[in-house]
Each structure stands twice: as C-alpha cells, then as structure tokens.
Design a protein that fits this description.
Blueprint (H helix, E strand, L loop, with lengths): L9 H40 L1 E10 L5 H9 L20 E13 L2 E11 L7 H7 L6 E7 L9 H9 L7 E6 L2 H5 L4 H7 L2 H9 L4 E3 L6 H19 L14
Parallel strand pairs: 1-3, 1-4, 4-5, 5-6
Antiparallel strand pairs: 2-3
Helix pairs in contact: 2-8
C-alpha cells in the first residue's frame, strides 16, 4: 500500500520513514545474501555441469589390441588382455568402462572434466543393435585398431564402419596401429610403412580425419601413451563440436 505524507503527522512520518529505512536495510541485506547464495549456487551448478562426456567405440579384428588401447584411454588395466588361444579372441562380449579425468582441459575459459565412456567390442563385425543400446545418444569417437604385423586381418574394417555409421564416420575416426615394434625389427619407418601398406590399410589411413598413431607393444605403452591418445581423441571430438554419430540399426553386418 502506498502511504501519502499528508495522512500522517511529522513524528509519525519520521518514525515511519525510519522504520522503512531499517526495513530497506534489512531487505537490502537479505537481498545481498540471496544474491550471494544465488551466485554461489549458480557457480556450483556450473562447476557440476563442466563435464564433457564422450562415447568412444573400439573396433578391430581379433588380437588387434582393442582392449589394450581401451586400457590406455582409461588409464588402467580393467579391460582383459592376453594372447588368444587357437584363434579365439580374449574379448568375446561387449564391455563398457567409464573414467573421469578431473580438470583435464579448459573449455570456454573454465576448467572442465573429461569423462570417457569406452566401449570394447568383440572382433568384427559389430552388432548395430547392441552398439545402439550401449550408445543411444551416439558415438563421439571411433577408434579403429589394426596390427602392423598382420596387415591382412582387417580388410573389412572400413566397410563395417561405413555400414554402421554412414559416410560421415571418417570425420569421427582415428586409426591406431599396434605392434609397431615389428617395424623397427624390419627396419621400416612409419611413413614408409604406410606408403607400402596394403591397399585397404593405406586407403583407410588417408581417410580418417583423426590421423594415425603407431604404438609399440614391446613396452608398457598403455601407461606411456594414454595421455597422448586422450589428447588426440579430445581434439578430434572438438573438431566435430562434440557431436555424436548415430548408429544405423537398419543394416545387417
């Protein structure tokens, strides 16, 4: 209710004004507290939201080193690895592991966590429906894994990936060649190897936008190369503005 000065005496006006001033101070003080708490809550909420979550799908043939690459990405040894017996792959079912890396990078001027959700798969071909169920929101990065010493093992890799994700797959993919120590033994340089590689592998290497990484399997490269792989993966996702590829479930591989 609005109060007119003509309706009150000067004393009453003075008292009223004094009371209103105190009320204003209390209101101002209260508003300040509310504003402070509101800003803190907003900042706290922003901090909680500064997490970039990426779905990473590992694809390759048996004994290509998919699980070892997965271990490097998450910085652990949770994915089972080892030599196959009678040609049977160690990884026989899909497995998903997540790892959060606090304050991993800066995004829009603020520190952000990196949450990697890594999906290890059985040997090719992948099951579209299963991949869709594991990644209903899509796949941000495709990690294609092949062995340098077995260049004829993954000849259908590109065909499988394109059937699963369509022609845009190459913009979300990087190629990792394991067992690169065999190149040293053969006296080959990485650049020379890719030039002389079989047609399918050379073509694949030229198509993946994320580039090619060679990993030496004679050392503990999962712990040594993990940060490098995560950085490359993050740069590739940023190049795509962190958009995800949708899985095509209307195909059979």
């Amino acid at each position: 209710m609005e109060i007119s000065p003509g309706n009150v005496s000067p004393l009453a006006s003075s008292a009223t004004i004094q009371q209103m001033d105190h009320s204003h101070e209390r209101s101002h003080h209260g508003n300040s507290l509310v504003n402070i708490l509101s800003r803190w809550s907003h900042q706290h909420s922003d901090d909680e939201q500064k997490v970039l979550a990426l779905n990473v799908l590992l694809l390759g043939n048996r004994q290509s080193g998919r699980s070892s690459v997965g271990n490097a990405l998450i910085g652990g040894h949770e994915f089972q690895t080892g030599a196959c017996i009678s040609g049977v792959s160690v990884t026989t079912e899909y497995r998903v592991l997540s790892r959060n890396f606090p304050r991993y990078f800066r995004r829009q001027g603020a520190e952000s966590d990196l949450m990697l959700r890594v999906i290890d798969t059985p040997p090719l071909p992948p099951c579209p429906q299963t991949v869709h169920e594991l990644c209903p929101e899509g796949v941000h990065v495709l990690v294609l894994v092949a062995r340098t010493d077995l260049p004829h093992e993954n000849t259908q890799l590109e065909q499988c990936v394109e059937s699963l994700f369509g022609p845009d797959w190459r913009h979300h993919a990087l190629l990792i060649l394991t067992h690169a120590d065999h190149l040293k033994k053969a006296g080959l340089r990485p650049s020379g190897y890719l030039t002389e590689a079989t047609d399918w592998l050379g073509t694949l290497a030229s198509k993946v936008v994320g580039g090619v990484s060679l990993l030496d399997s004679s050392c503990d490269w999962p712990s040594i190369s993990g940060r490098l792989l995560r950085d490359r993966l993050l740069r590739l996702s940023a190049r795509n503005h962190h958009r995800a590829l949708n899985v095509r479930t209307d195909v059979s591989l």
